[in-house]
Amino acid sequence: MKYKLLKKTRLTLALLLASSLFTATACAASSQAFNESEYTPTQGRVINSANEFAVLPHRDRIAPENAMLSERLDTLLPELMESANIDMWLVINREYAEDPVYFSLVPQPTFAARRTTMLVFNKLADGSVERLSVNTYPLGGPYESAWSGGDLDEQWAALAELIVAKNPERIGINVSKHWPEADGLTQGMHDRLTEVLPSTLQNRLVPAEDLVVRWLETRSEAELDAFAHAVALARGVIAEAFSSAVVTPGATTTDDVAWYIRQRFEDLSLPIWFMPYVTFQREGMECAPETPFCSSGTGVIQRGDVVHTDVGICYLKMCTDTQEMAYVLKRDEDDVPQDLKDALLTGNRWQDILTDNFVTGRTGNEILAATRAESERQGIVSSTYTHPIGFFGHAPGPTIGMWDNQGDTAVNGDWPLYPNTAYAIEGNIKQAVPEWGGQTIQIMLEQSAYFDGERVIYLAGRKTQWHLIR
């Protein structure tokens, strides 16, 4: 596919910012207090079980993962190297100290960098990029072996000879003060590289952080298909866990549910990237304005509880991050109390305010500021801490708030929003519940979504209805 890449020129960003500010001003003039009765959320989707979706055996995952890699290397990487003004990109790492970007670049099945592994991406005159390996053990396609065999000294000498022969003007290496994903070249590897290079080429080494971030944050059409499926699987397991098939009110604990989720993913051969956790809110539990997370109850789940979970899995290299909530019906209830339905609607409205502010070229800090301002105008008490997602659960790209910092985030928050990127739309709202004597409840939401350059599309729908535990 052809990737639509934003050219990072001052003029383009200035025009985009001007348009964004005009839109924000217009929205401010027309905004009013939010009324749940006049609002119907879009993109809602009910998923009942992970059994609704196929899961490929590990052997069958190799072909699609490698096809997606080849497509990215063929079509995306040349454009990104051109945009980042990088003529050669070096990814050098060794076993037990793999560069974070390494596994997004190598074919499957790859479990480690064998001894010292060197990948060389060299931009050619026609704009294409040749992909070379300088390794004791050749990787094979999609890489051409420029050297193999021999000892470590010979390997470093071969890399230096290759770089001298190609004579690139700007050589990107993975060193970064602010982006951990772009800081994979260890001090030892850096020292060895400078030792073997002539001084004239040492001066051409530049940080490749812009290239690394853009490579990791950009999604292809094929990846989006796989991503949507992964998110649906995660939501399906949550639906199973938040049901009477798993929860017996008065007996089942929050840990029981968390371990059910973990074991279910294990049974599906879906690796998790953090331990699932489950908590509850309950009538009578304080939810003060200054409390960042009110869903802190653990132990036996009771009728009338509001239960919350946060889970993350990876499938076909795409990692998810999902938070959803359930209500445990009291014995005389057959539906969620209206006050709780209204609170979830407010949460969905907050999501809309956030995603309506996704404009190409806006920074994460600008999106956060606009979201906070509009939420306040509509009387919504919210906290926004949305992050990019993809090869990593917490991926590089624009940071849109932090749970412990609702102001600007330096560097990461200044990164602009690009098309073809994905995000965990994460945050919470607080709202009084009259049926709980005016007690405040916190609705915590996190749903994976994709920005196509014009709109935000939830990859497997979003939660607009409560899970019910009977």
Structural key phrases:
single chain, 470 residues, alpha+beta, Creatine Amidinohydrolase, 2 domains, six-stranded mixed β-sheet, 17 strands, disordered N terminus, Pept_M24, Creatinase/aminopeptidase-like, protease, signal
Sequence of secondary-structure elements? HHEEEEHEHHEHHHEEEEEHHEEEEEE
Count of DSSP H/I helices: 10
Could you give a short account of the major beta sheet? 6 strands, mixed
Radius of gyration: 24 Å
Q: Describe it for me?
A:
- The chain is 33% helix and 20% strand.
- The protein is elongated, with a radius of gyration of 24 Å.
- It contains 10 helices and 17 strands.
- It has helices at residues 10-30, 58-84, 152-166, 187-196, 199-202, 209-217, 221-241, 254-267, 338-356, 364-377; strands at residues 88-94, 116-123, 129-135, 144-147, 171-173, 205-207, 277-281, 306-311, 314-315, 318-319, 322-328, 381-384, 387-388, 421-433, 439-451, 456-458, 467-469.
- With 470 residues, it is an alpha+beta fold.
- It has 2 domains: 10-55 and 220-469, Creatine Amidinohydrolase (Alpha-Beta Complex); 87-207, Creatine Amidinohydrolase, Chain A, domain 1 (3-Layer(aba) Sandwich), CATH 3.40.350.
- The strands form 4 sheets. It has a 6-stranded mixed sheet with strand order 4-3-2-1-5-6. Strands 12, 13, 14, 15 and 16 form a 5-stranded antiparallel sheet that branches. The protein has a 4-stranded mixed sheet with strand order 7-8-11-17.
